[in-house]
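Why do we care about 3D structure at all? Because function follows from shape, and shape follows, mostly, from sequence. That is the central idea of this module. The next example makes it concrete: a single protein chain, its amino acid sequence, and then its structure expressed as tokens.
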Amino acid sequence: MKINKSIFGLRFESHAEIHPSQEELSVFLESMKKTGGQELHGSDLAKYREMLEDMQQDFRAKMFYGVLSHSRFVNPALKSAVEQYKYLLHVLITLDLKKPRVYIRRWAALAEELKNIALYIRDNLVKVERLCEASIDILVDFQIERKFENQMIEGIKTHFKEHLKDSLRHGPIAKQHLETVKKDVAMLSKEISAILREDVFALTGLYEAIHDHTKKIAHEIDTLMDKMKSNKNKSFEDDKELFAQVEQVLVSLISEYHFELTVKEIRTGTAHEDILLEKRKEMLDHLFELLHKERRSRGNRRTGKDRRRSNDPNHNGPERRSEKDRRSKKNRRI
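And the structure:
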């Protein structure tokens, strides 16, 4: 958990009493260089500031695509299966009716394969749904335990202590410097906790969105497949319509999702934004490592004897929120 700050680390050999506060600095940078002019004092830093902001955008992208990758929702195999379904449905719809025997034989093969593809996608969507449920549980447990959060905060305290020791080797440190360090450590610790909660909240929300979308589509496929089973003695045209409806569902699966990741910008009350960003990246790496590792080791806890059952009147432990509550953010445990 040690912070590597050998380059552009803390600077104690300065007159902190004449430095502006973060608020004063922001007001200055947003003010005009000249009265009636168009250029701000902060304009000179615009290009560099944009590069730093791009780094944070990369962090958000890492969170977003990390969840999509881990959930397996974004998958070449899913894209290929939908493409194959669309192609085979087109072949079925355009079959030549002039040769009844060939038509019936070909129809049977195509219909069987279309059903197989639909079931293949449906079964894997259920797996994605369960993976998301397990991941949400892991994130909730991570937030409740707060073990890693405390380790990060201790890492910040250790980092500042080490720099104070290094500075003491070159002479005494002014009392004001010590007071500034104490305030910065306290504020950074508070901000680390807040950022961690926000990031876990954002990751959980994304897993929930994937979960709800895949569950909805899997249910729609099940409904249409059940109709096909009860449609054995009806016309080919009826079957065509059902297969076409499945196609529409599959298209909605990969085109009508709404996944968002709302990530809080790092805006610290100290001059140590780089420390927060480094800790944030460290936390994200740890979370994804935990999600991959615990997914393999835990399996699906909802199938075990100790699973939490909302309908079990004898269960006294914490309950997982209903889908309605999750979407409304009611009773959220993180």
